[in-house]
Design a protein that fits this description.
11 strands, seven-stranded mixed β-sheet, alpha/beta, 370 residues, 2 domains, 12 helices, 40% helix, Aspartate Aminotransferase, domain 1, Aspartate Aminotransferase, domain 2
Length: 370
């Protein structure tokens, strides 16, 4: 039987091969390699798709988290609340500003940090919070924004895994001061390398972000540096690749949601915890389909024997990572994050999967319990 990988980037590329090659060659032939027309067009198109007034393309999802914090003046002496259970970039972006990540435990059901968990982590030094829309599931943005407004906190949404996810009819990234997106190749909208973008409702924020990504230089004012910036520009060729894929993102997302519903239907009677895909105007982006069970490692080996890929996102909560040892966190401080780290297992989901592929994965999972 053919393998069913966790992701299948080659299948996606083959379906777009001719158009992508034409588009990349056009960008190469143009000679406009830095902040050229492809970037400007992508920024306009992504802003329109997300319903945001402004979009700024940057070099990675990590840069997309870091630059808004810097634009808001967050730095040494400040704290930013982030979930204890997420990818490391959510916290490392805080450290890159000189501020300190303040970890919040997660809700046991959603695996995201909600208003209650964030509120419990606040101190007098807290300046901002970064809600993470984990696996493609929106955080509970209404209560989080209410808390942030009451406490005078900035909000940067980590949308790295949540392209086109919604909370009560509004797309993620449009609630806070900024929304940070990653276009790492395996994401629902993936480049051919590293890339990212920031959306915002604020014209002033967008202008600051454009300066920060371009060494602190204002557009059309060459060699005049208004602030200390960095090199975090979106690459012109990556923007060209993203424009090809952006046209298919809505269809790919609909297909992912259909696959996820098939998984739920075929696995619902097994002793595993299935993800909440949302209802009505709150919709999961289905970047990852993550089940939870105590026999996680044994099931992963069982599926591997049949050529079915799996992944663990994430095996160690961030407070216990060596990179954050200076914060002196102890095991047991974040019990729900620890429980998630010990039980989560991602199974294959990508738009090119067939219903038969999904059925085969489900059949092998069912055989494990037999």
């Amino acid at each position: 039987m053919k393998p069913i990988p966790l992701f299948n980037l080659k299948a996606q590329y083959q379906s777009l091969r001719a158009e992508m090659r034409r588009t990349v060659l056009k960008a190469l032939d143009s000679g406009a390699y830095i902040l050229g027309p492809e970037i400007r067009a992508f920024e306009e198109e992504f802003a329109r798709l997300t319903g945001s007034p402004f979009c700024v393309g940057v070099s990675s999802g990590t840069s997309a988290l870091e630059l808004p914090l810097k634009a808001m003046g967050i730095g040494p002496g400040d704290e930013v609340v982030v979930p204890a259970f997420t990818f490391v970039a959510t916290a490392s972006a805080v450290c890159a500003t000189g501020a300190t990540p303040r970890f919040a435990d997660i809700d046991a059901g959603t695996l995201t940090a909600g208003a209650a968990e964030i509120g419990a982590a606040l101190t007098k030094r807290t300046r901002a919070v970064i809600p993470v829309h984990l696996y493609g599931r929106s955080s509970e943005m209404g209560p989080i924004m209410t808390l942030a407004r009451e406490k005078g906190l900035a909000v940067v949404e980590d949308c790295a895994q949540a392209h086109l996810a919604t909370w009560r009819g509004h797309q993620v990234g449009t609630f806070g001061d900024a929304g940070a997106f990653s276009f790492y190749p395996s994401k629902n909208l993936g480049a051919a390398g590293d890339a990212g973008a920031i959306i915002t409702k604020s014209r002033r924020m967008a202008e600051l972000l454009k300066e920060l990504r371009h060494a602190g230089q204002r557009e059309k004012r060459r060699y005049l540096y208004l602030r200390v910036g960095t090199n975090a520009r979106l690459d012109e060729i990556q923007a060209a690749v993203l424009r090809v894929k952006l046209k298919r993102l809505a269809d790919w997302t609909a297909r992912r949601r259909k696959i996820a519903r098939q998984y739920v239907s075929e696995l619902k009677d097994l002793p595993i915890i299935l993800p909440d895909l949302g209802v009505g105007s709150t919709q999961h982006a289905c970047h990852l389909f993550v089940i939870r069970l105590k026999e996680r490692n044994r099931l992963a080996e069982h599926l591997k024997a049949d050529g079915i890929g799996t992944g663990v996102y994430y095996p160690i909560p961030l407070p216990y990572q060596p990179a954050f040892a200076a914060l002196k966190h102890r095991r047991g401080q974040f019990p729900r994050a620890e429980e998630a780290a010990n039980t989560v297992l991602a199974i294959p989901i990508y738009a090119e999967m067939t219903s038969a592929d999904v059925a085969r994965v489900c059949s092998r999972i069912r055989s494990f319990f037999k």
